[in-house]
Write a structure and sequence with these properties.
43% of the residues lie in helices and 11% in strands. The strands form 3 sheets. A 3-stranded antiparallel sheet has the order 1-2-3. A two-stranded parallel sheet has the order 4-7. The protein is globular.
Length: 243
């Protein structure tokens, strides 16, 4: 279940969080069985992916520290409640992971489990939260999840456990749903840059999103990651479409 997390307004509140890293061996980007079946070039690409993740996440945190501090203070001033929101989501190999975001909703109205997706003009979202979600700044604390080894910069977006699609659990709607968990989940992914984001009220959209995630896993390359990262920056951070 998700929960609100109380932290000070410093952007360095994750210091102890990072020191409790899981095993971040590069071979663990996919399941061990899947890794053993890959070609030599694919194995090298996955190892390089982890190096890129750690390097860019570290640089991003260092560069964005002033922004993280500013957002933390803004959340404190804008509404009652903690700075961060923590939620259990699906990680690699169907293992639950705790994902962190800047809190963008009112604590008295938020669906901590995450089964109810955010909709346009959602009354649960705070004033500052609307800006954070539209610009995707609320996702920045997940850079620490990347350092920890739970997530990657690019990959299938991690869903809350028990998330509904078209009113039913994803697992019931899409039989091969858990195939998307063969790799570390990402802060952004192919489905998102192709426009498959937001509420999944239509079964067809939900199935298309999972299909795109599986396509990414089956066709992974560093060049594909580069293109997704560029499109994310262009579409989401420069012309945010979140709500």
């Amino acid at each position: 279940m998700g929960n609100f997390v109380e932290h000070s307004a410093s952007p360095f509140f994750f210091t102890s969080f990072i020191t409790k890293k899981k095993n971040t061996d590069t071979n663990e980007a996919v399941s061990s069985k899947a890794f053993d079946s890959l070609s030599r070039s694919q194995k090298i690409s996955l190892k390089a992916k982890r190096v890129v993740d750690v390097t860019l996440a570290s640089c991003g945190i260092a560069t964005l520290s002033p922004l993280l501090l500013l957002v933390a203070v803004g959340i404190r001033l804008d509404s009652k409640g903690p700075i961060l929101f923590a939620q259990e989501r699906w990680g690699k190999d169907n293992n639950p992971i705790k994902v962190y975001k800047f809190r963008s909703m009112r604590t008295d109205l938020c669906d901590a489990a995450g089964t109810r997706q955010c909709a346009e003009n959602d009354p649960r979202v705070t004033r500052l939260g609307r800006f954070l979600r539209k610009s995707n700044i609320d996702e920045l604390p997940q850079l620490f999840n990347v350092l920890k080894g739970d997530m990657s910069l690019i990959g299938p977006r991690c869903h809350p456990i028990g998330m509904l699609a078209a009113g039913v659990p994803y697992e019931e709607l899409v039989p091969n749903y858990h195939e998307r968990h063969k790799m570390r989940p990402g802060i952004t992914g192919l489905a998102q840059v192709r426009g498959l984001r937001g509420p999944t009220v239509r079964p067809s959209k939900a199935r298309a999103r999972v299909a795109m995630d599986i396509y990414y896993i089956e066709n992974y390359s560093l060049w594909l990651d580069v293109k997704i990262l560029y499109q994310t920056f262009k579409k989401e951070f420069l012309n945010g479409t979140g709500f």
